[in-house]
Hints:
By secondary structure, the protein is of the alpha+beta class. The chain has helices at about 10-20, 35-45, 60-70, 70-79; strands spanning about 1-5, 25-30, 50-55, 55-60.
Amino acid sequence: MYTTRWCGYCVRAKALLDSKGLAYEEIHLDDDPAFRQKLFDLTGGWTVPQILIDDRPIGGYTELWRLDREGRLDELLAA
């Protein structure tokens, strides 16, 4: 998960994953002035957080929350 320290949605995404007991790698982008271009190149998204599951971009917090609400997050993680 690509994050910044000042991002409220990053905090929410980490809380959701923590509540499910899921481990994740957090990559802080605060010190990289060109982080938005790097994110776009890696994930196709400009905003943080950008979350990847098995190197597949799923989007940000809203997409993560939606996957969880629909029961599809557990399916993705089990695959």
